[in-house]
């Protein structure tokens, strides 16, 4: 950390950088494009140290975010962010088409994967308590200086040798995940609100005949909700957290009502009739797990609050892990109660719980469910929109998107520009797009980011912290991912049964060998760390790969289009913007304080 004597000068240097004009003419931009290969190589291989991320990069936002949140705020934010999204959006469609009554098992599998990913997030968030989440964790982790020792994994090594690009790619996918999921949830809010007042789910939407099917039902209530929450989040984080806490308490009580009513009025025979507990087989259970993983989007929002927490080292583990465990238990019980209440083939795919109570004659309960679900959806939207603006703010600090998105309002302590921009983007998508179109692409982006974070944790623990040669860890990660893909594809394509234990046994063997051969330095007692490494991270990697392969081909096609677009944006804008920012910072640092520049701005490149 910097000394108190150097801090004021460093802050003034950052102010000078921020005031430097960054506008470039079109001719200068064309000249910059001619230098793209050189700049691309330099910027893709750039990494930042945790100390730089915590100090230098954070200061680019101007004002600091206000530290007002405590551990119970984080638990409420985690629970509020997840509850409502899964149960009220994905449970019905998954039970009807993929898993049947065994949808609660799908939630267990997805919950285990989310729990392991949450452990990885927790260790990173405690050691690097910044608002960037996975973007920052990946950006400061991968800095590999090795010779390519094997042609078979040259591309894999190159992937992990690109700190800035890996962080940008993950950050862009996280933002897409947030914006799309928030738009989907907002449209679900309209459906449940209609159920609460006893109207048809599409009665408040305006159908436009000239638009393409799936985009032709305009949802103005969803837009109004998003804009209202956007204004609330611009005002204050603490007040938004208090509002979420109140709504979450009522929502948990409401969940208790659904669970008790479901088991009281339901029948166990609905779990086995028609078609048994798993009418679509074991494959259907895992396919359902990949879809309901959408339900666990939200716990990573807690990690983006790191700059607004009074005691991050103690509060973050409680907030992240605790909220995932509570939500997993509630999801399983509520999903089970739905399948006990009505046979799976009679579940409505849009407003599942409201219609289920109508079918057993509890019209009043249907209205209560509609109102409670609407409240839960508001809470989950509030938390998700809180997290997405923090991600964009930190990406803006890195100059990978326009810098004005990184600004923090000094009076409210919130990233005002990022909040408004993403609020408008989310509202635009919610106005047009049906839920079914965006559900699967959300899952693939989420699983990819969680996969990268688990890999980053192993790399950080065994290379960055323990100072082992990176080639050993990279080879292990390459073999682990390859065998995970082999196992998953064999399962999906229903190859001969003996192939599965071969791949499974190989994964266990190489993990045990790696743990025995590559030493790991234990973390200090003052810092929270994932126990029994590398097994939790390895299991998380395997489950994320496995769940990705259960998704359908259109998911990969849409994801491929998105990946091409964000890569093109990085090449045409991000590379040149970060290159200019680095040049300005190096120039200011050399003029003002060469010694500070050497210690604080030593951006490591291969």
Walk me through the structure.
The protein is mostly helical. It has a domain of 424 residues: Up-down Bundle (Amino acid/polyamine transporter I), CATH 1.20.1740.10. It is 70% helix and 1% strand. It contains 25 helices and 2 strands. The protein has a two-stranded antiparallel sheet. The longest helix has 40 residues. The chain starts with 6 loop residues before the first helix and ends in a 6-residue tail after the last helix. The N terminus and C terminus are likely disordered.
Task: Furnish the topology, listing elements before pairings.
Elements: H1 7-19, H2 26-34, H3 36-44, H4 50-54, H5 71-82, H6 85-89, H7 91-99, H8 103-127, H9 134-139, H10 154-160, H11 163-196, E1 206-207, E2 217-218, H12 220-235, H13 237-265, H14 281-292, H15 299-303, H16 312-341, H17 352-359, H18 363-397, H19 416-432, H20 435-465, H21 470-493, H22 499-517, H23 535-549, H24 553-592, H25 594-600
Antiparallel strand pairs: 1-2
Quick overview:
With about 600 residues, this protein is mainly α. It has a domain at about 45-465: Amino acid/polyamine transporter I, CATH 1.20.1740.10.
> Are there runs of 5+ residues with pLDDT below 50, and where?
1-23, 144-162, 588-606
User: Helix content range of the residues, please?
Assistant: 55-70%
- The class by helix and strand makeup works out as mainly alpha
Distance between the termini: 25 Å
Q: What is the CATH architecture term of the domain at 44-467?
A: Up-down Bundle
| Secondary-structure element series | HHHHHHHHHHHEEHHHHHHHHHHHHHH
> Shape, please?
globular
Please tell me the overall pLDDT. Answer: 75
Q: Compute the gyration radius: what is it?
A: 24 Å
Main sheet strand line-up: 1-2
The name of the CATH topology of the domain at 44-467 is: Amino acid/polyamine transporter I
Largest sheet: 2 strands, antiparallel
How many H/I helices? 25
For the record, the CATH class of the domain at 44-467 is: Mainly Alpha
The CATH homologous superfamily of the domain at 44-467 corresponds to: Amino acid/polyamine transporter I
Number of beta strands: 2
């Amino acid at each position: 950390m910097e000394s108190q004597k150097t801090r004021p000068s460093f802050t003034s240097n950052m102010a000078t950088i921020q005031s430097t004009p960054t506008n470039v003419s079109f001719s200068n931009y064309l000249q910059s494009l001619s230098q793209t290969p050189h700049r691309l190589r330099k910027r893709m291989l750039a990494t930042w140290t945790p100390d730089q991320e915590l100090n230098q990069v954070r200061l680019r936002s101007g004002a600091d975010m206000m530290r007002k949140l405590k551990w119970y705020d984080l638990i409420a934010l985690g629970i509020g962010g997840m509850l409502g999204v899964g149960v009220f959006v994905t449970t019905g469609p998954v039970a009807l088409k993929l898993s049947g009554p065994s949808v609660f098992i799908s939630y267990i599998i997805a919950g285990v994967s989310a729990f392991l990913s949450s452990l990885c997030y927790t260790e990173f968030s405690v050691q690097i308590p910044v608002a960037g989440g996975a973007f920052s964790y990946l950006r400061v982790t991968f800095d590999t200086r090795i010779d390519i020792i094997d042609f078979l994994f040259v591309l894999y090594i190159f992937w992990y040798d690109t700190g800035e690009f890996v962080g940008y790619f993950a950050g862009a996918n996280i933002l897409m995940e947030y914006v799309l999921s928030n738009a989907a949830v907002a449209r679900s809010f309209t459906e449940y609100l209609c159920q609460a007042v006893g109207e048809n789910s599409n009665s408040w939407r305006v159908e436009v005949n000239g638009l393409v099917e799936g985009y032709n039902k305009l949802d103005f209530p969803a837009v109004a909700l998003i804009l209202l929450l956007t204004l609330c989040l611009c005002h204050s984080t603490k007040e938004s957290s208090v509002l979420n806490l109140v709504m979450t308490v009522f929502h948990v009580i409401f969940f208790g009502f659904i669970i008790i009513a479901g088991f009281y009025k339901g029948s166990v025979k609905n779990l086995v009739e028609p078609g048994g507990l798993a009418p679509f087989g074991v494959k259907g259970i895992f396919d359902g797990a990949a879809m309901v993983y959408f339900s666990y989007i939200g716990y990573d929002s807690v990690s983006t609050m790191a700059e607004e927490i009074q005691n991050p080292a103690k509060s973050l583990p409680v907030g992240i892990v605790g909220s995932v465990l509570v939500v997993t238990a509630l999801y399983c019980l509520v999903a089970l109660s739905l399948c006990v209440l009505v046979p799976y083939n009679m579940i409505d795919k849009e407003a599942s719980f409201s219609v289920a109570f109508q079918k057993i004659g509890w019209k009043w309960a249907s209205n209560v469910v509609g109102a409670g679900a609407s409240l839960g959806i508001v809470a989950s939207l509030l938390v998700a929109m809180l997290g997405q603006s923090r991600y964009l703010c930190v990406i803006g600090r890195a100059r990978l998107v326009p810098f004005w998105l990184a600004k923090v309002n000094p009076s409210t302590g919130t990233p005002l520009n990022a909040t408004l921009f993403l609020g408008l983007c989310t509202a635009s998508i919610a106005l047009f797009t049906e839920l079914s179109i965006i559900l699967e692409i959300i899952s693939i982006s989420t699983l990819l980011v969680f996969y990268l974070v688990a890999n980053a944790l192993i790399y950080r623990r065994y290379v960055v912290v323990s100072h082992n040669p990176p080639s050993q860890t990279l080879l292990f990660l390459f073999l682990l991912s390859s065998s995970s893909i082999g196992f998953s594809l064999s399962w999906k394509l229903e190859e001969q049964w003996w192939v599965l234990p071969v791949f499974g046994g190989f994964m266990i063997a190489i993990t045990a060998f790696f743990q025995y051969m590559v030493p790991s330095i234990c973390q200090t007692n003052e810092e929270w760390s994932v126990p029994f490494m590398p097994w939790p991270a390895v299991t998380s990697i395997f489950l994320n790969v496995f769940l990705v392969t259960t998704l359908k081909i259109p998911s990969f096609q849409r994801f491929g289009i998105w990946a091409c677009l964000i890569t093109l944006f990085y090449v045409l804008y991000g590379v040149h913007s970060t290159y200019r920012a680095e040049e300005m910072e190096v120039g200011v640092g050399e003029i003002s304080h060469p010694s500070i520049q050497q210690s604080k701005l030593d951006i490591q490149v291969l």
